[in-house]
């Protein structure tokens, strides 16, 4: 797909990986619809992108809420035109062990609230935004691309039952949608990042960061633009669909 003047929605787009995607795709000519929960963060992101000559508009949304998603995508279509690309990047963590026991007695358990909160944003949010994007693509008669952001943790990671399950489910959606939507000229793809240098990792202790970097075969954390490049590849390669790109420096959990 040629990105020039194409409307691409990016959830969680105000910071981190989503913002790096907006920069890369926007500099290739796409018009970016940034979706996030924070109006303040969105305004700052749009201001920075505008200074870089990237066309971007802000849309406040709660991706876990059906009516919020529907209104946001309707607003995109009204203000910018129907989307022909969507990157489902928004995600949260709320880590805990399934159970934690001492001397044969369970002292802590992952709460249903923690489980549900992460599944609502990380999996249901992808479903809701993907459904709206696909609807706009079909009804506008445009070919399109939906990219879902998973994680190295999709293979299972201690303390992340909720997050790992959601990220595994994301790729299942990619494969399913790739098969269902091909008839409409819509392609799909998953990008699964490893450990990336973001605001989240920047807040970690230096010794922890060193241990993480040492565990990666390439001996370094990835950069947000590494993931953005992977996303751009899926958009640009018209024979890529329903598959996953692992961008993790060779690390396997």
What would you say this structure looks like, in words?
This protein has about 250 residues and is of the alpha/beta class. It has eight helices and nine strands. The chain has helices at about 15-25, 40-50, 65-80, 110-140, 160-180, 200, 205-215, 225-235, and strands spanning about 5-10, 30-35, 55-60, 85-90, 100, 105-110, 145-150, 185-195, 245. Strands 3-2-1-4-7-8-9 form a seven-stranded parallel sheet, sandwiched between helices. The protein has a two-stranded antiparallel sheet with strand order 5-6. β7 (about 145-150), α5 (about 160-180) and β8 form a beta-alpha-beta unit. α1 (about 15-25) packs across α8 (about 225-235), α3 packs parallel to α4 (about 110-140) and α4 packs parallel to α5.
Pick out its properties.
single chain, 253 residues
Please sum up the structure shown.
The chain is an alpha/beta fold.
Strand order of the largest sheet: 3-2-1-4-7-8-9
Order of helices and strands: EHEHEHEEEHEHEHHHE
Largest sheet: 7 strands, parallel
Q: What Rg, in angstroms, do the CA atoms define?
A: 18 Å
Q: What is the mean pLDDT? A: 96
Topology:
Layout: E1 7-11, H1 16-27, E2 31-36, H2 39-51, E3 56-60, H3 66-79, E4 85-88, E5 99-102, E6 105-109, H4 112-140, E7 144-149, H5 161-181, E8 186-193, H6 199-202, H7 206-215, H8 224-236, E9 243-247
Parallel strand pairs: 1-2, 1-4, 2-3, 4-7, 7-8, 8-9
Antiparallel strand pairs: 5-6
């Amino acid at each position: 797909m040629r990105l020039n003047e194409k409307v691409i929605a990016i959830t969680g787009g105000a910071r981190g990986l989503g913002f790096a995607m907006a920069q890369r795709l926007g500099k290739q000519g796409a018009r970016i619809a940034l979706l996030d929960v924070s109006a303040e963060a969105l305004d700052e992101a749009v201001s920075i992108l505008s200074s870089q000559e990237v066309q971007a508009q802000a849309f406040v949304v709660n991706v876990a809420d059906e009516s919020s998603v529907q209104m946001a995508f309707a607003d995109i279509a009204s203000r910018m035109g129907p989307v022909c690309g969507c990157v489902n990047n928004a995600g949260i963590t709320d880590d805990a062990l399934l159970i934690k026991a001492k001397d044969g007695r369970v002292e802590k358990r992952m709460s249903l609230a923690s489980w549900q909160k992460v599944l609502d944003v990380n999996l249901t949010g992808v479903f809701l935004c993907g459904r709206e994007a696909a609807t706009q693509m079909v009804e506008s008669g445009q070919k399109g691309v939906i990219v879902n952001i998973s994680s190295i943790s999709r293979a299972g990671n201690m303390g992340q039952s909720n997050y790992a399950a959601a990220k595994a489910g994301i790729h299942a959606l990619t494969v399913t949608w790739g098969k269902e939507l091909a008839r409409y000229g819509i392609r799909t793809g998953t990008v699964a990042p490893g450990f990336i240098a973001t605001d989240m990792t920047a807040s970690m202790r230096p010794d922890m960061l060193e241990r993480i970097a040492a565990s990666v075969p390439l001996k370094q954390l990835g950069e947000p633009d590494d993931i953005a490049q992977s996303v751009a590849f899926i958009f640009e390669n018209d024979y890529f669909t329903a598959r996953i790109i692992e961008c993790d420096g060779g690390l396997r959990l």
